[in-house]
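Annotators were shown the component list below and the corresponding predicted structure, then asked to write short factual statements about the assembly.
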Amino acid sequence: MIVTLAQLNYHIGHFEANLAKMIDAIAQARREGSDLIVFGELATCGYPPRDFLEFDEFIRRSENAIEELCKHSQGIGIVLGAPERNRDPRGKNLFNAVYLLSEGKVQFVQHKTLLPDYDIFDEYRYFEPAKNWGVAEFRGKKLALTVCEDIWDTGMKDPLYTVNPLDEMMQFRPELIINVSASPFHASQVRKRRSVVLENVTRYKLPMVYVNHCGAQTDLIFDGGSLVVNSKGTVVAELPYFEEGIVTFDMGAAEESPGIAERPLGKTETIYKALVLGIKDYFDKLGLKKAVLGLSGGIDSAVTAVLAVDALGAQNVTGLLMPSQHSSRHSVDDALQLANNLGMPHHVLGISAAYDTLVGQLQGVFAGLAADVTEENIQARIRGIYNMAFANKFGATLLNTTNKSEMAVGYGTLYGDLCGGLCVLADVYKTEVYELAEWINTNGERIPQNSILKAPSAELRPDQKDTDSLPPYDVLDKLLYGYIEDRMGENRLIEAGFDGELVRYVLKLVNRNEFKRYQTAPVLRVSSKAFGLGRRMPIVAKY
Amino acid sequence: MIVTLAQLNYHIGHFEANLAKMIDAIAQARREGSDLIVFGELATCGYPPRDFLEFDEFIRRSENAIEELCKHSQGIGIVLGAPERNRDPRGKNLFNAVYLLSEGKVQFVQHKTLLPDYDIFDEYRYFEPAKNWGVAEFRGKKLALTVCEDIWDTGMKDPLYTVNPLDEMMQFRPELIINVSASPFHASQVRKRRSVVLENVTRYKLPMVYVNHCGAQTDLIFDGGSLVVNSKGTVVAELPYFEEGIVTFDMGAAEESPGIAERPLGKTETIYKALVLGIKDYFDKLGLKKAVLGLSGGIDSAVTAVLAVDALGAQNVTGLLMPSQHSSRHSVDDALQLANNLGMPHHVLGISAAYDTLVGQLQGVFAGLAADVTEENIQARIRGIYNMAFANKFGATLLNTTNKSEMAVGYGTLYGDLCGGLCVLADVYKTEVYELAEWINTNGERIPQNSILKAPSAELRPDQKDTDSLPPYDVLDKLLYGYIEDRMGENRLIEAGFDGELVRYVLKLVNRNEFKRYQTAPVLRVSSKAFGLGRRMPIVAKY
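Structure shown to annotators:
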């Protein structure tokens, strides 16, 4: 059987565009003599559609797309994911389904069994799990059709689910496993996903075709990397990462293939690629062209600028240099050097005059009170106004440059440096920002060396350094990782060797700043636990 | 059997405070000769604990609280909700459980079956549903113990679930149904909840004790209203709304009771009470005392000020009047009148000087470009800076005054009038804000009549009116209700009689402004579909 894997970049709710893409891929598959083409999960509507699924018209448009695809299924099988209505009044009104279309009609539908409802996933919100299983028969082969999470229960010690759909399907003696996925990227997910596919092949001794999405949907970045594995567990095809790919493959020949070498992607390289794609798709899919960001001379804004320039083109990214009386000379120099290195437009807009006026106006109300964090925040907020004014006037979108360490401990000013339509680095710890900067500079200096080497500072008061109020980032980041990614509480962190006082101080900072994170832009997700919908902590609570 | 209903205001994660409250209630029940005291759902830890449930230490603290409560169960039964670990490795690691404690130990545990995973609920994220059912035996009575949603599948046409736990329990012939709930308020929920309880009583011909939480948890407001209903369907006790209550009741006598009259609460009155409680608990539970808000002379800020004053006391709520060159004389007069009516501190802080400086600084970058929405936003953002500067300097929390109609169509400036730690009115449509204002003025003018009567305006350019860019609020609000609360799409709205062009215009406004709502503070929820975690629409999508 000749199978085509179509790893596409869908646009949520853009049924026409998604359909046109799929029809093009079908035509290519047909030209390449394919028996069967396989798309991703919820391919008609894009993933994750979230509460769009509660709109009847949205489901009807997906049904119309299926009908259209049926018309293109003469002489070729089409496997794709799409919602299906639940005809039983009991239970949720939809299934997350995988369809087999051929000869002009729907030949087979299998519902998804394992509905992820953790981290960024909310599938049980919309879908009823499958309670019946079967296999599709197509051109003399029995196909086990599965959807994403369905293959992720691979006999681990603490399984999330109480049933295993592939175990159930085995009674029908399938000969090939097909999985349609929408599996978002995070830095350790590429390896994890590959090993999950291989574990299924080993467990069932069946070849497997695994098709993922690529492309970003607001915060989620789908990295592709679709796979064909033969029944011996040899990876015989791997589609590209972070780009679309349509590849046709002979499953018969696959059994005898020596396989392809694993192309290990470095963690920093994948994060770089994910963030560039994340920015690009945010702009492309919203019809935006121009970005603006503040350039402080520091490493966060420098890395963000590089990522934006690589995603959108230098001419589309404007930097604003907004020095104050507390800015050091090198801050402006380093920012200018960066803008010149990248060839991006930039403007210098001092904030001292505005600061003096605003503070002067407040003099009456603040009479007799000493300067404190209030005045620091006013500086950051004037920069917020300038950034947003530029964005409004020129139709640009402001990029937020906050990193994950700052975002975690609330080291940032709400409505100041926390402004922006998209948080580019807020899932990248400060220590990882340095790794990104070094990686970016591998083939020559794009980020000024001084931005990398100097001690981090918010420059909101004389001689301020981040380490005045925070532990060194190598310690802080490990502690934050334990709390955020590994959900270790105070006691477990102390048992793990962190200083008790430090643990209590840092956890208090993280917890007390839930309210800031609640009000920041979507965060491009590159870790297993990003701020946003994937991490739901109460604001009002006793921490 | 003598039963005590304990309708308490829990604090999420504050195990000591919750435990102390429960122990006090047990002592009172004991004094009143009670056999059994009933608390709410997840009473040890508060509801909703969200991702706290993923922390082992959090669960351990709940287990410790259960142990402590056991020590207080000599001679009295204690029914309460709390998480329980799932000892089966398969499935999620927790159950949402109801416990019966007595004579020093856990006598019985029943797991929750129906896990709500819609709107603001995410229970399947954490909990495994029950697959086994039983009844607790206590002092010669068989008790059917249920948790919140377990009683909500009352034989409707399109049930969300495929099992019904009470149906399953009936084989064990229970004599009393007990439900421990955490059922949040919205304007039609009081009536709905009462009828659900009555439907269960009618269906099973059993008396029922229903215990809800009261008190607010960030955005969610639990309104209490716990009930005792005898087997004939007569409501024999109803606990207060929006306050704690501990009431002891003889279930034997209940069967012969003539019942109590229904005390219908007006919609506007309940919204008022809910919002006051929402503000109060946000401040109390976070240890905050002082609030600040901008007073524009308009109705939204006036209503917000009244609610804040009623929640926190006039001396704790400061109003900032921040006129610009576009502010009408009556704006300042009306705001001053309001502040005087309420007896709240206030300051006048003009924004013209700051505006002139900021716009002057931008002159170089904006050379040759006409004034547009950029300059309007700068005005709103200067007010944001003043509000936040006051909040920072005096340790106050800024209250956001945006209403739901504005929030829906994006009629507001991000980092300007959309600033604030809590959105007080953002789940109240503009037409409902008028109803609130009228209700507030029932016993004399607190809100100046002119704020109610004048045409709404943002006053960001000369003679601006809301109706310059929006349809009249009575039309707009109905359309928004159809789209937001009723999830009607474009076609269904047009079928329902709305003008096609208007529908497309308004839906486009709502959809294009997802990015603003993503960055606004938590919204006190008083409708069945509030902005926030209960409504999850993609930002990047083709709408």
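Statements collected:
1. Residues 373-394 of chain B form the longest helix (22 residues).
2. The CA atoms of residues 211 and 495 of chain B lie 42 Å apart.
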